[in-house]
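Re: the request from the purification team.
They wanted to know what the chain is likely to look like in 3D before they choose a buffer screen. I agreed to run a prediction and write the result into the notebook, where they can find it.
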Amino acid sequence: MKKIRIILSIALIASSVQLFGQSQIVDFLKAGQADANTLSQSYLLPYGEMLGVNLNSGWYNSAKVHKIGGFDITFSASYATAPNSKKSFDPSNLSLEAVTPESDGMAPTMAGSNKESMGFYFQDDPTKTNIIDMKGANADVFVSPMIQAAIGLPFHTEIMGRFMPKTSYGDYGDAGLWGIGLKHSIKDYIPFVKRVPFLNASVLAAYTDFDAKLGVSNEGFAGEIGEGSGNLETTAGAFTTRLLIGVNVPVVSFYTGLGYGTTTSNFDVVGEFVGYEDTSKPIALEYKTSGFDFNAGMRLRLAIFSLHADYTVGEYSVITAGVGINFR
């Protein structure tokens, strides 16, 4: 079980590792605290939003509710992709206090190509020497694995849970999550659906909490502002409500879900850095998202084993696939 937790922990923070391997975020500290937060807010936007979208995914693979005592244990992975509109931003729209971009045009976010960059220099520097080289990180996808379980309760209801205790793995950092959800059948409340045995309808509400820590450092400019090391501490909460409609026939079933989700993601750089002796948290960011999305999927069931996959249409597209054990 410990090995499984370690594998899931690495997978959960893998998208972060590829982003912060070059210490891009702490490099922004050379611009001063105000501008470091402003630049980071725009640069990390796709990461903050993809994290929230993924945490709201993978909660179900059927509109049917378990009978009393019925259960399932499911392993799934959600794969979110950033739209092109989130791969760059216009620095001229930012309220920068100390630095300015080297040229007009768009700067890459972390989801942008690592072949794209934008330099920034101090506004009062007559030589216009860049102190920051903002590069894309090719981090336009976010993959999150989940293990969760559900059990049927009285009154056509089932309770669901997902949990991974915070697990540390060497220099990668650590990560953990938990979540809880409820699904309730509304089949008997809809006359047409009630009369058709293979049709199912239900409503779902679920919440997921995520916590991770990654080491970051900037040791290439000894003694200069921004030099030092610390951690990027990430916390996120995601809540979703869903109306589910499904068709269950022998071996195969189909399901759709229309829902509304909200997410809040926080990213804090905590550590000791030159020029920031008066604070242990030089960068503190918050992202909030909300909106509707729709997904459709299929589950193939072989005895008590099942395979499923679905696609979510929204600002960020998400593909979820998984395997599970199902009973009743």
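For the purification team: Residues 2-327 form a domain with the Lipocalin fold (CATH 2.40.128).
Please add any questions underneath this entry.
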